[in-house]
Amino acid sequence: MKTKIKSLIGSLLLLSLVSCQVQDESPISGSSKNAHPVNINLSAYSTASVMDFLIPSAYANVSELKACFKRLRFKKDINDSNPETHTSGDDDLTPHEEDNIDFNIGEVTLTDSGTLLGSVNVPEGTYYRIEFDLEPSCASGKSLSLSNDFGVFSTTEKIKIKFDGVFVVNGPEVVELGVQDILNTANAYDGTDSMADVFESVSGSL
Fold first, then answer.
1. What is the rounded distance in angstroms from the CA atom of residue 196 to the CA atom of residue 59?
2. Considering the entire predicted model, what is its pTM?
3. Are 32 and 109 in contact (CB under 8 A)?
4. What is the pLDDT of residues 90-125, one digit of tens each?
5. DSSP 3-state assignment of 55?
6. Do the beta carbons of residue 132 and residue 65 sit within 8 Å?
7. N or C: which end of the chain has fewer CB within 10 A?
């Protein structure tokens, strides 16, 4: 009888251990342990500077900029481009928790007064980059489109937009992503190079 009881207790302990391991590997977009809601905003921006009134600008002013958001990543190690590898030395996240967070909010038109994107659950920690994947999955069939003084441009290329800086999550947070450098790039875009190459070469700020 004692042997059966010991065997039953052992089985229950093993089942409990397996259950805990499965819970610890939950994705960032779910109810991860120590996760907090983070509201994500794109900052206000300007398409012209005071100097433009004194010296003619070499840039064209953006009249419209639209992006189709598919997913995002909060990254603790900006040098880790492999989603299967986590090398930052921080054990708060499993390898997959930094990658491929569903953020399919559709096509968003950026406004110069700022743009609210939405909210996701993010585990506690310090992050050094936020990345967005833009894909042609919206009704327009475009991942990115813009209008400026050079013309009207759009693409169906997959584009990764990144924001670098330091962002700490230890409770409900609001992060404002600085887009001025990205808008400066949009101002100067004339269609010579691919939109993916041009916009992936610039970073916004945290």
1. 19
2. 0.70
3. no
4. 333 344 444 557 777 889 998 888 889 988 888 888
5. coil
6. no
7. N
